[in-house]
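Inverse folding, one chain.
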């Protein structure tokens, strides 16, 4: 669960953990109501410990305002669902998302099946997005060959003036009309032709790779468009009608520009490549609440938001050069020093979960970080903190955030200072140097700032030095490695039989053909379905086959195609494995040669052999198999001068199936 993100609210006369929520902070903290600071919470990054123990999230791990772990969020983010009332979602950066199915319909397909086409509309975002890219149907991309000719996808990016989907209007018998525009909502309209081979379990889960909000303002250039810069995305959310509804003049622009520049700084990676310091890629639900969404955006950039005098001041995580030095001259009263954190608040290792695009956008464990020097300081006990980063998709970035959290925690000194009015020159979250008598000088951040009733400023100064931000990718970044591949039971799908073989007849005339096939190694196998199609019949004919049967016989006197597929106990079926009727040889001719007869013609593509049947008269019933050949021309040898023969040929497929007989051709040996 997310622990507290630093949100510092300047509220006149308020001290403690007052929640900032319920509307525009400027309305809560009026322009003339400045100077007491409430520091909401103590940690920058989201933790999953509370979610694991079933409690709700809060600003300080004891209040209200819930959220969920990255694993739960990722599952919800990529699942399509039907629900009468649900919250809209916001998409930042680039990520795989799904959403509520707001329309379902079936119609007659091109084969005349009344419910052959399945229509669905899936809303992906409550705002305009830049692109809707790849679409997943279940675990497969919609471009998978098995979906060829079965899928149509219309993408609507969420323009406020977008027109209704023309295909739905035409194909849903008035259920979807021109009034159903989905104005301001990014969605995809899908039409699936449901077949048991492509969709064995019916309509699949539907998700898409979306490049999110593209109305984000960048004050550095004045441009409005797509961005995955966390600081700019946070400013967009602060001003959005579904966010804090703040005006742009309520945001401190110099601070926003500085934060955006920090996010865009280039940082090296272990693999020799580079990336921007912070990006945000993910989906949030409006049902989470303003504070929870704000926390997630701040966590993606190790950031802080200060609210002072009705203005939002956004900070991205970075070293803070000292803005001033706090000395005895700044004091009006007592100084309290905390030399170390309570044991329960210390940790020397960090484990984290982030979203990995390389693993189908699923929650993935980052390489754990354990600092041996801090373990030694803690008496040899490894103490981990578990963190969640639902909006982070880079293994390198998440490791930098993990190290930052650990190093901040190990800087344990804090000083409570009763300062005089000279402290008015300082702002919350400024960096300062603490150089008060009898205290060893150390760098710190202003994490608490309040106006004292008796006059003066009360400050909380928390130790933080530049080394917290040090990063050497060659040393600090750990290899992610490959997660072990496991094979899990999949009762909803079953493999196609690997091969099928037809028992090649050895006589010109036959009364039956047999086929056998490779067994499917599945514990969920229920039976095999076998079908035959004689050359003179247009449709496939079903044959009986039980669970254990791997052979079927079909009474026929002509070339016949066979096919087989597996059926699972769940009802799912595999694809067909087929033994088609091969093409027959063509253009056959025979001429007498010395001591035999030469046969010429076209050898059919795909055939592995030709069978040659021979008779001493024009009687197919009397013909016997004389030879199996693999090339044309071919010579029937060992004939005496004047001997005549009648010859018929047919092709043999790789599966052993045969074509119709071609012939006879006849000649007399010279």
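Residues assigned per position:
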């Amino acid at each position: 669960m997310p622990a507290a993100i630093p949100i510092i609210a300047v509220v006149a006369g308020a001290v403690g953990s007052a929640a900032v929520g319920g509307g525009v902070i400027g309305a809560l903290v009026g322009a003339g109501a400045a100077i007491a600071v409430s520091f909401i919470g103590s940690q920058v990054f989201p933790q999953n410990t509370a979610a694991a123990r079933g409690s709700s999230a809060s600003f300080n791990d004891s209040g209200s305002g819930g959220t969920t772990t990255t694993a739960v969020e990722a599952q919800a983010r990529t699942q399509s669902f039907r629900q009468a009332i649900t919250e809209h979602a916001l998409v930042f950066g680039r990520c795989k998302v799904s959403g509520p199915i707001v329309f379902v319909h079936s119609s007659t397909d091109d084969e005349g099946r009344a419910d052959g086409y399945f229509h669905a509309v899936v809303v992906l975002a409550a705002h305009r997005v830049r692109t809707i890219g790849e679409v997943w149907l279940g675990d497969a991309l919609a471009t998978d060959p098995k979906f060829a000719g079965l899928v149509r996808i219309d993408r609507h990016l969420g323009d406020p003036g977008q027109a209704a989907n023309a295909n739905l209007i035409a194909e849903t018998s008035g259920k979807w009309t021109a009034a159903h525009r989905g104005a301001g909502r990014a969605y995809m309209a899908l039409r699936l032709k449901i077949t048991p081979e492509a969709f064995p379990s019916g309509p699949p889960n539907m998700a898409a790779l979306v490049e999110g909000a593209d109305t984000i303002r960048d004050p550095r250039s004045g441009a409005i468009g797509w961005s995955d810069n966390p600081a700019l995305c946070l400013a967009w959310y602060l001003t959005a009608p579904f966010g804090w509804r703040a005006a742009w003049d309520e945001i401190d622009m110099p601070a926003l520009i500085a934060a955006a520049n920090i996010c865009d700084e280039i940082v090296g990676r272990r693999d020799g490549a580079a990336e921007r310091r912070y990006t945000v890629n993910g989906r949030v639900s409006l049902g989470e609440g303003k504070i929870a969404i704000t926390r997630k955006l701040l966590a993606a950039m190790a950031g802080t938001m200060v609210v002072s005098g009705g203005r939002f001041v956004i900070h991205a995580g970075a070293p803070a050069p000292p803005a001033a030095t706090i000395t005895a001259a700044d004091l009006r009263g007592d100084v309290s020093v905390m030399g170390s954190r309570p044991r329960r608040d210390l940790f020397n290792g960090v484990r984290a979960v982030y979203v990995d695009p390389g693993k189908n956008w699923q929650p993935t464990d980052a390489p754990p970080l354990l600092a041996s020097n801090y373990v030694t300081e803690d008496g040899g006990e490894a103490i981990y903190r578990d963190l969640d980063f639902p909006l982070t998709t880079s293994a390198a970035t998440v490791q930098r955030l993990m190290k930052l959290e650990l190093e901040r925690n190990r800087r344990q000194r804090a000083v409570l200072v009763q300062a005089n009015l000279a402290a008015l020159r300082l702002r919350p979250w400024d960096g300062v140097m603490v150089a008060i008598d009898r205290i060893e000088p150390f760098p710190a951040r202003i994490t608490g700032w309040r106006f004292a009733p008796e006059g003066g400023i009360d400050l909380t100064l928390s130790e933080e030095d530049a080394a917290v931000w040090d990063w050497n990718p060659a040393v600090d970044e750990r290899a992610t490695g490959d997660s072990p591949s496991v094979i899990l039971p999949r009762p909803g799908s079953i493999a196609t039989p690997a091969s099928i073989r037809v028992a090649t007849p050895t006589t010109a005339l036959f009364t039956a053909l047999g086929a056998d096939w490779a067994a499917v190694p599945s514990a969920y196998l229920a039976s095999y379905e076998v079908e035959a199609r004689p050359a003179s019949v247009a449709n496939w004919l079903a044959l009986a086959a039980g669970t254990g049967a791997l052979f079927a016989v079909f009474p026929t006197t002509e070339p016949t195609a066979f096919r087989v597929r597996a059926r699972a106990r769940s009802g799912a079926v595999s694809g067909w494995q087929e033994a088609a009727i091969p093409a027959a040889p063509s253009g056959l001719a025979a001429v007498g040669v010395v001591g035999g007869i030469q046969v010429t013609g076209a050898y059919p593509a795909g055939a592995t052999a030709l069978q040659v049947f021979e008779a001493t008269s024009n009687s197919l019933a009397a013909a016997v198999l004389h030879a199996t050949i693999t090339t044309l021309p071919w010579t029937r040898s060992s004939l005496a001068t004047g001997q005549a023969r009648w010859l018929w040929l047919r092709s043999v497929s790789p599966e052993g199936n045969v074509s119709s007989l071609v012939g006879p051709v006849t000649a007399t040996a010279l």
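The chain is about 10% helix and 35% strand. The CA atoms of residues 322 and 431 lie 4 Å apart.
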